[in-house]
Amino acid sequence: MEIKITTQQMLKILQVVSWIIFIGLCIDAGGIVFNVVCTFAISPLYTSNFWKEADLSALYRYDPGYFVVIALLMVIVAVLKALLFYLIIKLFINKRLNLSRPFSFEIKQLLLNISWLILGIGLFSHSGREYAEWLSKRGVKMPDPQSMRLDGADVWLFMAVILFVVAQVIKRGIEIQRENDLTI
Amino acid sequence: MPIIVNLDVMMAKRKMSLNELSEKVDITLSNLSILKTGKAKAIRFSTLEAICKALDCQPADLLEYRV
User: Fold this and answer.
1) Which residues of B touch A (CB under 8 A)?
2) What are the tens digits of pLDDT across the range A49-77?
3) Who's near A28: CB < 8 A, 6+ residues apart?
4) Of A153, A133, A164, A165, nearest to A76 (Cα)?
5) What is the DSSP string of B39-61?
6) What is the C-alpha separation between A169 and A163, in angstroms, rounded?
7) Region of poorest pLDDT, from A74-83, A145-154, B18-27
8) pLDDT of residue A113
């Protein structure tokens, strides 16, 4: 029996997946922010059992200033990731995706925004990772970048470049479509 | 765009309405309106030929280059 999945069905599935990822990323970002706030407002003990078992107690003991920088980078990366999926969800909610005319200025703008966000995630992840390595060299026991959610910077950067190229191709497609529409 | 479409001028000279022209050249009113308002990016030779035939004019009467 052949199962045919139409574009509409595929988009419905992607919408559900996007919602799940978005909620997960929001929880992730909220968890990091909550831990940082708790560390400063309640007790520094929260650093030893940080979000996703990233042990930042050694860093906090070494210098709370460095801890703030690493925590800030983690928060920025987590928020940017959540924002990325918020943009995709907004596309589904606002019903701006018109399948009869898929090449629109909104889609081009969305792709450009997504690529800027991904570039930001890549750059902040990279700087966070470099910063963590630098701290490790200074003798601070740092958790691995994966538990700090700062891994895969190179993949994000590659993805940003690819999306920039796709956005440019779509931009040209829109121009041709518009010219075609306005040819009498 | 420095290319000006003088369709409205020719229509006025021939005392022809947009509806009448639309019926004669078999082009939708919205497309004729795009052409008339100068929003069009290009015009097909076949369309130009049909309009020239309906308005009994030359392409130069419809199109003008102005810097």
Assistant:
1) 27, 31-32, 34-35, 39-44, 47
2) 666 677 777 778 888 888 888 889 989 99
3) A51, A52, A78, A81, A82, A149
4) A153
5) --SB--HHHHHHHHHHHT--HHH
6) 10
7) A145-154
8) 92
What is the CA A167 to chain-centroid distance, rounded?
18
Q: How far is B60 from chain A (nearest CA, A)?
A: 17
Report ipTM (2 d.p.): 0.71
Domain segments of chain A: what residues?
A: 7-183
pTM: predicted TM-score of the whole model, two decimal places:
0.74
- Which residues of A make CB contacts under 8 Å with B? 178-179, 182-184
Amino acid at B53: K
Average pLDDT over residues A38-46: 76
Other Cβ atoms less than 10 A from the Cβ of A9: the count is 10
Reading the block at residue B27, the tokens are: 């082009």
